[in-house]
Each structure stands twice: as C-alpha cells, then as structure tokens.
Amino acid sequence: MEFLIFLIVAAAVVAGVFWAKKHFRNEIDRAKRINRANKNK
C-alpha cells in the first residue's frame, strides 16, 4: 500500500514539473538570463 501511495506521489510530482516547465518556461529563461548577467558583472 505504501508503494502505491509513493507511485501516486511520484507521478504527481513528475506531472507538476512538466506542467510548470510548459507554463513557466518564459519566466525561467528570463530568470536565467538575469542571473547570468549578474554573474558577468
């Protein structure tokens, strides 16, 4: 039973990561560019 719960939680996490990547890709790219610019200073 615990393994089944673990599988459901793992599937939810993976689905959440894919959803976030799809919806927040622009923000993530912008944040990466800002971080790179700050490091280069």
Helix and strand layout, with pairings?
Layout: H1 2-40
Strand content: under 5%
Averaged pLDDT? 89
Largest sheet: none
* Element-level helix/strand string: H
Description:
The structure is a single chain. The chain has 41 residues and is mainly α. The protein contains one helix and no strands. The longest helix has 39 residues. It is elongated and about 55 Å long. The N and C termini lie far apart (53 Å).
Short description:
By secondary structure, the protein is mainly α.
Keywords, separated by commas or semicolons:
single chain; about 40 residues; mainly alpha; 1 helix
